[in-house]
Amino acid sequence: MAGTATNSCNFDANLQKTVSHASSEPRNDEAMVSPSRIALTPFADPYAGYEAWYELSKSLGRNECASALRQVSAAVLATYTTDLLLPLLPVAAASHRLGIEVMEAPFNQIEQSLFDVNRVFRTVPQYIVLAGTWYDLRLLPGESTEAAVQAAVARWTGLWDAAIAAGMRVVQLGFVPPAVDSFGLAASAFDSSITASVARVNAELEKRAASRVLFADAAVAASIFGLRNWNSPRQWYSSRLPCSLDALPHLAALVAGTIAADCGLTARCVITDLDNTLWGGVLGEEGADGIAIGIGPQGEAFTSFQYYLRGLRQRGIALAIASKNDVALVEEVFTRNSRMVLRREDFACIVAGWQPKSEQVKEISQRLHLGLSSLLFVDDNAFERAEVARALPDVQVVEMPRSRAAYPEALASAPGLFSIQCLQTDGLRGQSYEGLLQASELAKQVANLDEFLQSLDMRSELRPVEQTSLQRSAQLLAKTNQFNLTTRRHTQPDLERLMRDPSALVLTLALRDRFADHGIVGLCIAMAQDKEAVIDSLLLSCRVIGRTVERMLVAAAGQWAARQGCTKLLGIYIPTHRNQLAEGLYSQLGFTPRNESIDDGVTYEFDLLNGLPQGSCFIQEMAL
Amino acid sequence: MNVREHTMSRISALFASVVGMTPTRGEATLPQDVSGWDSLAHIRFVYAIEREFGCELPEEFLVAGKPLGEFAAAVLGAQGA
User: Fold this and answer.
1) Neighbours of B1 (CB within 10 A)
2) How many C-beta neighbours within 10 Å does residue A370 have?
3) pTM for this prediction
4) DSSP A203-242
5) Predicted ipTM?
6) Where are the domains of chain B?
7) Cβ–Cβ pairs < 8 A, chains A and B
8) What mean pLDDT do residues A254-283 have?
């Protein structure tokens, strides 16, 4: 499914038609591209309102969306009616190229549904969304505020345990405060106000969610939309709706975005244009000192946009430049213009020249080892956006508004930049992309690959998965396409089960080299049965492919299998259209093909009685 | 066509588009007369009316039960006509 053109799907065409984008004024050079043929990343704007989304949900039902990169099942268990919300979830998910099969659950029977999963659901949903309203937090007669807060926290966290035990990934929605509070605008300063109670429950849930559960902050989503517009007491009294109808698309976007980000469907690199995107004016005409940045209403808007992008980099999203400019002039801006917020080193990759933007984007994809669907393209010029969207339909193209002041907002509402609680390792990633580039520069200087690998001074750390590495491991399983031998998308609850299984091994590999600390970049899952151990999953982040890192994992799996008393180590390769580069791995490592097929894959075996698979001579294993 | 008739015809059009059926008994049509006029369709129907006319219907109209004809008067009342 991955890599399917987003414009191949009828639903996308409907989205384009029905939902208005914040779009810039057409330019002359745009006239040569017929709008109906432009393949833009489908984006259903929550501000289009409930009616538009309802229409989209009907067309989605008729035309199965063929462009989904991932397909998941999800159910919502809430203390409110979800009937109007559920049909909007696939609409919101389509913006992320995620397919959601929504499973219905009875209204306000949360405990009953969770503790009797098999009766309520045909199959256990992969994701379970838990949600309440501030009305649930009202004090019982004689109850203290503290007791009510603790009771709410205990209720929901107790539900997490039940859901995780049943193998579901939990999305806990935060509570939205009311628009009206007896304590008025100072409500949060009074512990006994409902506003303060809501905030404390949210803070407590968010803290306890840590890496176990996905916490989606509905209060923030509601405050951006406006609490008075979000809350609708009359809809609550008459229909038990949690919010106004026009707030429902925002709620759906929050749920779908959280699941999509958990599935690894968000962008890993933002590619930006320069002239009139990062600064005002044309560099070739104005010169490095003449471009508008920092001063005046235009210049200040560009400054803010640069701050926004710098924040993305701190979040672990790499930045790159694709510009029709003279590369020497671009470098000059970074060395000479002191008003630039972004520095040269903020960009993992700069491509400047006169080739079409789509070719520049492709080059960035290759240099950073990032798949096209993980790239987000930003350009003020509608013609360039259309050219990239048409040539590379997998790349997410952000529709940019005419107003420079609205640039950050345009990116902030792009589905590809949806964020969930940050993984600690995400910060390392930006650094790692740059280290990667330095390493590839080094590769040009050294005589051969062996010498290059030796000079990288790589050190690996192999550890069984633990609580702190669980989320990163699940992320790798969700995201990795290229160096992934079986592409089995085990989820975090699956991993938690395997952690407790003495006949299973879940091993993480962290790598550092002389340029960067890459964090956890490799994962191996093996299972032992009788005299055979099978490598169920073996994967590497694309950042460290081609460095013999996989040998460390296979060697460790071999040692573990031998300790388990196994005499054979089996490996499986299941081909997809993304993982060809891993095809020959087991043969290279001395495995022999077996005459049997698992999941349409090829099985290999290694006879442990004749010795163990060797690690890599280029990587030093650090002692635990 | 007077204001009330005009309002009624717009409401009937909204009804047809939201519920997907024409009101079988005209202004006297009740939810039990039309199979598609369930509680969810009713919420969407009220939403459509309020958007179309830019007004908020009285609370008793938020739950299905009133005959279709009463919505015209409610709209005109809410608009202050």
Assistant:
1) 8
2) 22
3) 0.74
4) HHHHHHHTTTSEEE-HHHHHHHH-HHHH--HHHHHHH--S
5) 0.91
6) 3-78
7) 26
8) 94
